[in-house]
């Protein structure tokens, strides 16, 4: 699970660096989402943002033909890997922590 956290931090950092000058309110959004003690909300936001990004770029490539396949491959690698990894780890993050019983 630590590897997934590191991966999401890396991809999130890359995404933040890419939009830094375009969206100055990203820090307000981050505070609003991550100040929630419930860890389900940030995970849902991350998953939906990757799905939205992949869908957006697929639409640009397949319908509008405004994107090169090399760029789609890069987006597909990061978004696809993140989506698959998050879905594989979904139960580990959604289930409440269990206390170990001592006999």
Automatic annotation (TrEMBL):
GO CC terms: endoplasmic reticulum membrane
This protein's name: Uncharacterized protein
Organism name: Spirodela intermedia
Bilayer topology annotation: Multi-pass membrane protein
Transmembrane spans: 7-29, 69-88
GO terms assigned for molecular function: protein-macromolecule adaptor activity
Family: Belongs to the ERG28 family.
Compartments in which it is found: Endoplasmic reticulum membrane
InterPro entries per record: Erg28 (IPR005352)
UniProt keywords, alphabetically: Endoplasmic reticulum, Lipid biosynthesis, Lipid metabolism, Membrane, Steroid biosynthesis, Steroid metabolism, Sterol biosynthesis, Sterol metabolism, Transmembrane, Transmembrane helix
A Gene Ontology biological process term: sterol biosynthetic process
Recorded superkingdom: Eukaryota
PANTHER family xrefs: ERGOSTEROL BIOSYNTHETIC PROTEIN 28 HOMOLOG, ERGOSTEROL BIOSYNTHETIC PROTEIN 28-RELATED
